[in-house]
């Protein structure tokens, strides 16, 4: 059977959690695949995904696009290789799913909501699954699936058992889905944080630089040792608030399998005499024990402002402590401090000397294309009105049955592009607020007709709750 090795790249933002792999026409031809077919993906582990066509800019680059979850299922990161081959997947008679223990926060048994099975089934219908896979369920705003997980946007479930087993299976209407109450162990790292590169709109270049500076030295210290270059201890991300500095730091930590330690600058300096230094020291100590780690210092200018602006004794001592901690860090590359600030020239130059925060990356305001991506990210899993008027249907990619849904998606996409064009000057955080406001408006409209006395609103009713264009337009007028 023909197989092919390709380089892994991050998924398109809209693809997160959909269980698909994007392949270019050359690869499709070589492996005799059509969109909708199922492939086996082998890295350090084996997994599966459904085939979709790659966008034109990706053609003949020797790459595949898969999301964070498929990358974890295959045991690979961005830049590494996977082997792809076509497979036939028999129908799954049964699929047993469980939550990773790390997600249940110590609660021994999990209460799934009344309609959890149905919701999950709808999410994963027609998907291929291999035993051991993490299957992310994008939680739409409508219904919390479990009592303890109301706020999570993505819920990673683990396929602990399939029937038949030891083969890639396909979930169909006939598949019996069982939710195991006992959580599953061994997925701690997978669910440490669920912020991934797919959660970041735009900033492609910036992510690439952050990865080179942080992820690479963490994963391959031998490379840096071989070339006799020092990976950075500290990196400054600077740019306007709400542009994704925190988001990038979290994503790089998660994607590198590193722990994430957050320090809010203003909070540190607000402490009592001696407490600030102690707290800093504690966090650095924890991070060292927990290595590889990322320490993120938000608003670092409040801890270490330019000396001429420093008035208080506290600030002076906190800066001194931070410098001592940085200079004392020996495990180069395994612990990295990321500082975020709105203005890079607002921080103490002593901090920016070689061996300290000696790399700087500008995180700017998104352009139209970036805003479009950010809107796509934040409306993921949100039911949005397509448009009533009929337009020419696109080429059906995965069978006639899914064509209307595809058409709806295309229309939603067009509308998001239109919104992106009209939101010049909005940063990521503003776009998130816009989407949330539109959803709240939709909710308020629907509330009077809902029977809130019932324990759970039935899926048939939920399906009718759709965020309209008017909701977005009104939110935009705010
Ligand atoms: P900063 O640290 O630059 O002030 P954050 O990373 O805290 O900004 O952004 C706040 C929120 O706004 C994020 O959690 C995210 O939901 C959204 N956001 C900001 N920038 C982006 C982006 N580039 N892509 C997607 N979402 C973004």
UniProtKB/TrEMBL annotation:
Top-level taxonomic group = Archaea
| Span of domain CDC48 | 111-186
Alphabetically sorted, this entry's keywords are: ATP-binding, Nucleotide-binding, Repeat
Q: What are this entry's molecular-function GO terms?
A: ATP binding; ATP hydrolysis activity
Question: Locate the CDC48 N-terminal subdomain domain: which residues?
Answer: 5-89
Segments carrying the region annotation (Disordered) are 384-406
Q: Which residues form the AAA+ ATPase domain?
A: 231-367
The answer, when asked if Nucleotide-binding is one of the entry's keywords, is: yes
Regarding protein family, the annotation reads:
Belongs to the AAA ATPase family. CDC48 subfamily.
Protein name per its UniProtKB record: AAA family ATPase
To which species is this protein native? Methanosarcina flavescens
Full-length numbering of the shown residues: 1 to 478 of 774
């Amino acid at each position: 059977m023909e197989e092919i090795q390709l380089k892994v790249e991050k998924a398109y933002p809209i693809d997160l959690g959909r269980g698909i792999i994007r392949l270019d026409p050359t690869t499709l031809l070589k492996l005799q695949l059509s969109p909708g077919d199922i492939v086996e993906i082998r890295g350090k582990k084996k997994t599966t995904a459904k085939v979709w066509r790659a966008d034109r800019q990706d053609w003949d680059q020797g790459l595949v696009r898969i999301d964070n979850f498929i990358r974890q299922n295959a045991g690979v990161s961005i830049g590494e290789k996977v082997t792809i081959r076509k497979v036939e997947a028999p129908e799954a008679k049964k699929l047993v799913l469980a939550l990773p223990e790390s997600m249940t926060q110590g609660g021994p048994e999990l209460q799934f909501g009344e309609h959890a099975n149905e919701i999950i089934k709808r999410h994963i219908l027609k998907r291929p699954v291999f035993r051991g896979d993490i299957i992310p369920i994008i939680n739409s705003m409508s219904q919390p699936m479990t009592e303890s997980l109301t706020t999570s946007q993505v819920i990673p479930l683990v396929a602990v058992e399939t029937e038949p087993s030891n083969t890639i299976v396909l979930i169909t209407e006939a598949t019996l889905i069982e939710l195991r109450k006992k959580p599953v162990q061994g997925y701690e790292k997978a669910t440490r944080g669920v912020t991934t590169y797919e959660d970041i709109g735009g900033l492609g270049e910036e992510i690439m630089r952050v990865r080179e500076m942080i992820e690479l030295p963490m994963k391959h210290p031998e490379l840096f040792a071989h070339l006799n270059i020092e990976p950075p201890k500290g990196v400054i991300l600077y740019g306007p608030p709400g542009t994704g500095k925190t988001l990038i730091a979290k994503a790089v930590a998660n994607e590198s399998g590193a722990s994430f330690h957050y320090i809010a600058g203003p909070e540190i300096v607000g402490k009592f005499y001696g407490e600030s230094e102690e707290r800093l020291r504690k966090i650095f100590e924890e991070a060292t024990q927990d290595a590889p780690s990322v320490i993120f210092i938000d608003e670092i200018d409040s801890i270490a402002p330019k000396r001429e602006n420093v008035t208080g004794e506290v600030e002076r001592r906190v800066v001194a402590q931070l410098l001592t901690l940085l200079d004392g860090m020996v495990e180069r590359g395994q612990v990295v401090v990321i500082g975020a600030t709105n203005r890079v020239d607002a921080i103490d130059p002593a901090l920016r000397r070689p061996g300290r925060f000696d790399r700087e990356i500008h995180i700017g305001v998104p352009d139209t294309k970036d805003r479009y991506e950010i809107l796509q990210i934040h409306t993921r899993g949100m039911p949005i009105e397509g448009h009533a008027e009929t337009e020419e249907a696109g080429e059906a990619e995965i069978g006639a049955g899914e064509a209307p849904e595809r058409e709806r998606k295309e229309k939603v996409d067009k509308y998001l592009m239109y919104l992106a064009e009209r939101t010049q000057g909005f940063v990521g955080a503003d776009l998130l607020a816009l989407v949330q406001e539109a959803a709240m408006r939709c909710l308020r409209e629907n509330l009077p007709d809902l029977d809130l006395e019932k324990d759970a609103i039935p899926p048939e009713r939920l399906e009718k709750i759709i965020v309209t264009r008017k909701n977005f337009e009104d939110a935009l007028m705010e």
